[in-house]
Design goal:
0% strand; mainly alpha; 244 residues
């Protein structure tokens, strides 16, 4: 079984075009020169090693060392027995991993800083909106508290309006009574004037009737004789009374 796997691995290695080992130093040199030209600060090897050790699974240094040694042994065994051959796919994978690692390493803090800035900006906007809303609510509460005496003022105004309505009703009644009295007085005055006119007319008719009757009686000689005799008798009585 092991020989069969070895033969298949050797066949795959022969079929796949591999990169010569002499090209690896040139590639490493170019990567190193590109890194130094990019101005990226070099990390301390101790910190780098410590970060790699911390990234390994395990709770103790012994377990992490065992995992790292076993992984290195398996890799060396695979490479020495040509179970795995370094080819262009491996270089591409390493480049991609390096690029993604650099992106996560250098772009992660910038993205985190930008995200924290956006979060803080949104928090500031929300806090400002909450503060404005709180201030508006407080202002509204104060304005409502200032209107606390509106109930008493409304009650007073209602009482005043009630009294005003009563006074207006009384004034209307008095106005109607005055108008009725004025109309009754005008009717009574008209009746008095009518009765006065009737009395004057009756007296005039009576006087005219009496004058006409007297004038008619004066036209009778007997009446004139009687009046003359009565007058003479009255004159003699007056003279006789003065002589005594």
């Amino acid at each position: 079984m092991a020989s069969r796997l070895a033969r298949s691995a050797i066949g795959a290695a022969r079929l796949r075009p591999s990169i010569p080992s002499r090209t690896l130093p040139a590639l490493t040199t170019s990567l190193t020169s590109y890194r130094s030209a990019s101005g990226v600060p070099a990390e301390d090897p101790k910190k780098k090693a410590q970060s790699i050790i911390d990234s390994l699974p395990g709770n103790s240094l012994i377990s992490k060392t065992a995992i790292l040694s076993s992984t290195a042994g398996v890799a060396i065994y695979a490479l020495s027995n040509e179970y795995y051959v370094v080819n262009e796919e491996t270089i591409v994978a390493l480049c991609l991993l390096s690029i993604w690692g650099a992106v996560f390493k250098y772009g992660g803090p910038m993205y985190k800083e930008w995200a924290d800035g956006q979060v803080n900006k949104i928090k500031g906007i929300l806090n400002a909106a909450r503060a404005d809303h709180t201030e508006a609510v407080k202002t509204r509460i104060e304005s409502v508290q200032q209107l606390g005496s509106v109930v008493d003022i409304t009650k007073t105004l209602f009482e005043v309006s009630k009294e005003t309505a009563q006074l207006e009703a009384k004034a209307f009644e008095l106005e109607q009574t005055t108008a009725l009295a004025a109309e009754a007085k005008s009717v009574l005055d008209s009746w008095v004037r009518y009765e006065g006119q009737v009395k004057i007319r009756q007296q005039k008719e009576l006087s005219e009737t009496i004058i006409a009757k007297i004038q008619k009686e004066l036209e009778n000689p007997k009446v004139l004789q009687q009046i003359l005799q009565q007058s003479v008798t009255d004159v003699e009585r007056i003279v006789a009374s003065k002589a005594q």
